Amino acid sequence: MLLNLVLMSFIVGSVGTGAGAVLALPFAKRGDGRFLYGFSSGFMLCVVMFDMIPSASQISDMYTGILGVFLGAMFVFVFNRILDRIYIIRRENGTIKTGLLLFIAIALHNFPEGVAIGAGYELELSFAIFISVVMALHNIPEGMAMGISLYLGGETRLKILGYGLIAGLPTIFGALIGNLAANIGQRFIGGGLGFAAGAMLYVCLSELIPQGKSAAGRKFYISFGVGLMFGQIVLILCENLI
């Protein structure tokens, strides 16, 4: 049973994020990579605002969810300042920094969702399947945004794939912890999900949207709107079909 859980969480986390990172490369090579910033940021913003934050409040309570969002945003803010100092010294492309921030944010949000998958696998299989499908679907555009940033910053395809796979590993650890402690406090899961949502929200608003807007011009608004609509459609389909 645990082997099935590990395999499922690996596919959801590592394969989903890694596939998204690799799928972004052909677009980046043709010069369309920055257009995908809009789509990815729109999709991510939709998932954070209409799925992750409400879920965090429902699983725990409103105050725990809000506190988690605030702490997650502050964590990435501090990490961002550290990266700023490093890359000012190195004078390297800022897109690498965006990719690394996305890597951290994706890894952070994979862990609490992995815990939810593991606990649901033990207590309520239908909930575990729902979380798994939603997570796998929105890991792909998140991986694409990370892959584009790293590629434009000069990273190799192999390294980009490695980043994608590693970012998904917390899903496995979270799933194992959630399964072994199926009665784990709801506040822990909700607060962790809020923390991850805050981290993702900060990266989206402070990095992806400004970079996409400055690079893609008017195309950004089109791709951003498409990403928002696509994200909402995915959430609606998952909620009604699973």
Task: Please sum up the structure shown.
The chain has 242 residues and is mainly α. Helix content is 91%, strand content 0%.
List the main descriptive attributes of the protein structure presented here.
242 residues; mainly alpha; 8 helices; globular
Question: Would you mind describing this structure in some detail?
Answer:
With 242 residues, this protein is mainly α. Helices cover 91% and strands 0% of the residues. Helix 3 (62-90) packs antiparallel against helix 4 (94-123) and helix 4 (94-123) packs antiparallel against helix 5. The longest helix is centred in the C-terminal third of the chain and has 31 residues, at 186-216. The chain has one domain (2-241).
User: Runs with pLDDT <50, length 5+?
Assistant: none
Q: Helicity level, as a percent range?
A: over 70%
Largest sheet: none
- Written as H for each helix and E for each strand, in order along the chain, the element string is HHHHHHHH
Instruction: Estimate the global geometry from the Cα principal axes.
Output: globular
The total of helices stands at 8
Extended strand count: 0
- The radius of gyration over CA amounts to 17 Å
Q: What's the end-to-end separation, in Å? A: 22 Å
The total domain count is: 1
What's the assembly state of these chains?
Answer: single chain
Strand content: under 5%
Structural class: mainly alpha
Overall pLDDT level = 78
Task: Describe the protein's topology.
Blueprint (H helix, E strand, L loop, with lengths): L1 H28 L3 H27 L2 H29 L3 H30 L1 H28 L4 H24 L5 H31 L1 H24 L1
Helix pairs in contact: 1-4, 1-5, 1-6, 2-3, 2-5, 2-7, 2-8, 3-4, 3-7, 4-5, 4-6, 4-7, 5-6, 5-8, 7-8
